[in-house]
Amino acid sequence: MPNEGPNGAFVVQYETMYDLLYQQTMRRLREYVRVKEGVVGTMTAFGIMGGTDMQDISGERHGTSSWQDTPMYRRWAVKQDFINQQILDQEDMMEVAVDLEMGYVQNSIAAINRRADKMLVDAATATAVSGATGTSTSAYSTSAPATDGSGGNQIAVGGTGCTLDKMRLARAIFDAREVGLDEMNMGISNFVWVTNAKGHQDLMSQTETTSTDYIGVVVVNGQEERRKMPLVGGRIPFMMGFKIVIINQLNLSGSDFINLAWHQKAMGFAVWGGRFLAIDRLPEHRYSTGVTLKEHFGAVRIQDAGVLSIVCSAS
Q1: Residue pair 314/126 in contact by the 8 Å Cβ criterion
Q2: Highest mean predicted confidence (pLDDT) among 9-13, 74-78, 103-107, 281-285
Q3: How far apart are CA 149 and CA 167, in angstroms?
Q4: For 90, which of 104, 113, 136, 246 is 20 to 30 Å away at the CA?
């Protein structure tokens, strides 16, 4: 066997160290919405039951019953189909000492996970399909809300970024609208605040978000723990009852970022069937390997009162 020298092993050794390029690989928002799986059909409904009032019958005898018609509402998630396809040459596989097929699969899964989060971000402020049979629409109100819960659903930029004042206003609005208020009184918070890297940086620059006088909770293996150095991991996990989630796919209002805040029951995510994965030889491409990943899902804003958009300056 001829002596190939160090260069003969260099390529193999180098190619065993493949990693995915830095990117979002996991879904970050699914646990903060209502989820329906195994859906059949082109649309699926998320039902909402409205409230009713008690009647005062004090002093009445043999009165006539007065029946109430409980209000019922529906919002519909519409199926969308997504595919990610990558091709891998046979020659590539012969030249590396790493399972590129598995790497391509991981790359496809990362892409579809990002797309699922982006769908929820878009659906939060999109026109929702509504009505008993999905033939009506409900537009998102971008007018300013008031602390008494009246008004629309968009907190104006005000020339500032993601600030605690905006969080306080969002909390007051949700409380006035009875959004998750009973849960909060029991110590349960099913709220999420969706920001991006710039928004998280804005929060980190404010004393109340970094002082242990105000924040002292971290999440370890899914469990909340109180610590004296909550920011040692570089993250603000909770603030004002909101779980802080960073998504670098926020929409823009001009040059400003639109942060989002919602209650878990206010957003819906539906999945049709399961995730389809195929790894096949492609005769038409010299028997290269094709990696195909398909998934079908849809998202919808279920309750307008439980979703707020917060415009934050990018500067």
Answers
A1: no
A2: 74-78
A3: 14
A4: 113
63 within domain boundaries? no
pLDDT at 244 over 90: yes
Give me the sign of the Cα torsion angle 101, 103, 108, 112. Answer: positive
In a domain, 257, yes or no: yes
DSSP 305: G
Structural domains in the chain (count): 1
| 188's tokens | 């349960």
CA distances from 315 to 50, 194, 203, 227 (A): 42, 18, 14, 32
Q: What share of the chain is helix, strand, coil (3-state, %, to 5)?
A: 25, 35, 40
Within its chain, how far is the Cα of 102 from the centroid?
26
The answer to whether residue 96 is domain-embedded is no
Q: Is residue 37 part of a domain?
A: no
Distance CA 36, CA 270 (A): 5
The domain of 217 spans 120-273+276-312
CB-count exposure of residue 79 (10 Å: 0-12, 13-18, 19+): middle
Q: What is the pLDDT of residues 102-142, one digit of tens each?
A: 788 899 999 999 999 999 999 999 999 999 999 999 999 99
What is the reported pLDDT for 103?
82
Burial per residue of 2-41, b for 16 or more beta-carbon CB atoms within 10 angstroms, e otherwise: eeeeeeeeeeeeeeeeeeeeeebeebbbeebbbebeebee
Model pTM score: 0.86
Q: For residue 228, give the amino acid letter.
A: K
